[in-house]
Amino acid sequence: MLDPDVVFLNHGSFGSCPREVLQYQQSLRDRLERQPVTFYVRDLEQMLDDARTELAAFVNCEAKDLAWLPNITTGVNAVVQSLKFSPGDELLVTNHEYNACRNVLEFVAQRDKAKVLAVNVPFPTTGLSEIHDVIMSRVTDQTRIALLDHVTSQTGLIMPLETLIPAMRERGVQTLVDGAHAPGMIDVDITGLGADYYSANCHKWICAPKGAGFLHVKPEHQENVRPPVISHGANSRRTDRSRYLVEFDWPGTWDPTAVLSVPVALKTLESYLPGGWPAIRKHNNQTVIAGRRLLCTALEIDAPCPDEMLGSLASLPLPDSDGPASTSALYGDPLQAELLQRWNIEVPLIPWPAHPKRLIRISAQLYNGITHYERLAGALRELFPQAA
């Protein structure tokens, strides 16, 4: 349903939901409104379980360990606010972490008189080993939890979780993975990764309706993790179902149709290419690498990370902003508006690591083609002729 007149290179921010999936979601809303009591009281729990089973198979984990949420920020809140820290404890994060999730650590650290330790991970980077070593060099005996991106939002890097998570475990550090961009972009194996907590969105690269996310908690931690909204489940006497699912599945009256549409989104996207999801991931990866190459040439810069660290996002540094810092939490560089107004290109400009430094981040989804990146490259040559 994207505007055909706009070159949309910002799938990473919110994604775009196929018509077929939105039509299915509307059929669920119609069903809800025809008989709300039947929908919520008699049918919903089984519907949530059925959708949960489909998602669990896609990200390789046990369905009973998945809780539905509207977004990953809610998942990070659920985990971090449930944990109790002591004065002097360290909550580790990197400077690539999304601001909303970083704020959760700051809030809890202030509450418990702990401290947030932000690791400056280099960008440009030479590769996975450099990132692993930099992060692990900052772990101390006081480090209690590490919030780690699976794919960084600002810089588009696939992080070395396969080595970081076991290394953290050896040091006695729990791991919470911010997987906002991972499902649908890369092959996600939650069981294989072995993180203590993993939260992600389905409304980005899976292309589910907005408001579809999840939290995976290892069974040994579920008794201690509570939802941000305490509701009926807090004093439930049910023994046929874990307290974890009882609490998370009913935060109060809510619209569950986004998460119930996840299985349809998985099947719909899978049908778009003969090779299904592996072919989609490969197509998008190859597209973003080719697009990044065009932009590097236009800006006369080297690629800031190896190709193998990319999924379907890529970020490149731009010349510093000469204007004031934006007050918008969702970015707001005037150049982003200019690209839309003059060239009909929607692409985010991100103040990173802080204003006036900034990045331009491109996305690649099936609706993107190489001509889209050629158009952006031409615009950047006109905007920054000194780089051409």
Summary, kept brief:
The chain has helices spanning 11-14, 19-34, 36-59, 72-82, 99-112, 128-136, 161-170, 190-193, 243-249, 257-260, 262-270, 276-299, 334-343, 370-383, and strands spanning 7-8, 66-69, 90-94, 115-119, 143-149, 174-178, 197-201, 213-217, 313-318, 345-346, 349-350, 358-363.
Any overview of this molecule?
With 388 residues, the chain is of the alpha/beta class. It has two domains: 7-18 and 271-387, Alpha-Beta Complex (Aspartate Aminotransferase, domain 1); 19-265, Type I PLP-dependent aspartate aminotransferase-like (Major domain) (Aspartate Aminotransferase, domain 2), CATH 3.40.640. 41% of the residues lie in helices and 14% in strands. It has 14 helices and twelve strands. It has helices spanning 11-14, 19-34, 36-59, 72-82, 99-112, 128-136, 161-170, 190-193, 243-249, 257-260, 262-270, 276-299, 334-343, 370-383, and strands at 7-8, 66-69, 90-94, 115-119, 143-149, 174-178, 197-201, 213-217, 313-318, 345-346, 349-350, 358-363. Strands 2-8-7-6-5-3-4 form a seven-stranded mixed β-sheet, with helices on both faces. The longest helix is centred in the N-terminal third of the chain and has 24 residues, at 36-59. The two termini are 35 Å apart.
